[in-house]
Amino acid sequence: MVMEWYWALVLLLGGAVGLLLVGLPVAFAFFAANIVGAFIFLRGEIGLSLIPIEYVLSVSKFTLVPVALFILMGEILFQTGVAFRSIEAIDRLISRVPGRLSVVSVAGGAVFSSLSGSTIANTAILGNLLLPDMLKKGYHPTIAMGPIMAVGGIAMLIPPSALAVLLASLAERSISDLLIAGVLPGIAMTVLFVTYIVVRCRMNPELAPAGESRPETGWDRWRPFFTDVLPLFLIFAVVVGSIFLRIASPEEAAALGCLAAIAICIAYRRLTLANLTKALRETAKINVMLLFIIAGSLTFAQILQVSGATSGVLQAISDLSLTPVTAMIMMMVILLFLGCFMDQISMILLTLPFFLPIADAQGMHATWLLVMMLIAMEISLMTPPFGLLLFVMKGVAPPHIRITQVYAAAMPFIGLEVIVMAVLIAFPGLALWLPNLLR
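Given the sequence above, the corresponding structure tokens read:
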């Protein structure tokens, strides 16, 4: 069927967005859009018969293996309780710092990020563990909740990030380059968060109790760090180091990470058949959902291309004579807007079929685009009114905390993340520096 590209775009993209807005799960929304698109643009029943083939080809890719293994690695550490020991160790280590518990939440969240890659798990766990104590000790809700939400999103950047693997797999670009590229922005955000907390609490002591410190000194203070934190960093070193040193592929590094997690849990005597079975079961649930989403996304991209919508959008953008920087800014603005009311996977599925051809046409480095997309999606996790981490925080916060207070807590940290984004847009080499060392 012949149709102008903009009507094809409205039909396919508008249909998928409409189904998402009425609450249909992501996988089913794209499945429905694919059925309609295949019937209209791929000659009726012939097109419908191609959908199962495309779905099978989409998920039978070896490059998707790290997604499942990184999720399994995080589940093993969480289900055995090993990951929680690091929070207490970091709490003992940090002393006599303005806003100490807020700093602990950032440091602890950064450690969690290097273990799980789950933004929701980071925020929920840190919120449950630290927020009640912080509020009880007199921390202002904004300086208590803001750091927890902000560092929760860093899990999207710091390896092992399941979303980064998923994004690189869908884009059919280097997984190892994207995993390594997320390290520098993640560290930069962590440093900015800690600096902001210390400076803000020093300027306004009413935000957090003054002179807070732990009673332990000497070896009693440092021992938990060596026993409960450093061993967990071995997992990060195994995964990232094996990729960086070209000892292993991303798939092999993810498998080594799982083995390292199991070995550490055995050393702590926390691994049992029951919690290992639960970790495997939860991993299977998450991965089945992701595989359906991946299959729907890649098929959707194919139908968009056949319909002429992708080429039409590219032609319209090329007529604007954008530079690579202005094109990048435009794409980031679109992602930030979508993030106000849409989850991250949906954002990837809707925008990646258009953003990749735009990047190629503009001569952008694909890794630069993908790491910028991760940062934009991290920011969107805290963007009012429907940022996912805002509702996670509201769910774990005491009943008297209003959603407007959660919004207010997120805003300064959104600003800090936008600063990191702006720097990486202005200086793309910073995002590509670590991946270039791999070559």
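The chain has a mean pLDDT of 82. Try to locate this feature in the token string yourself.
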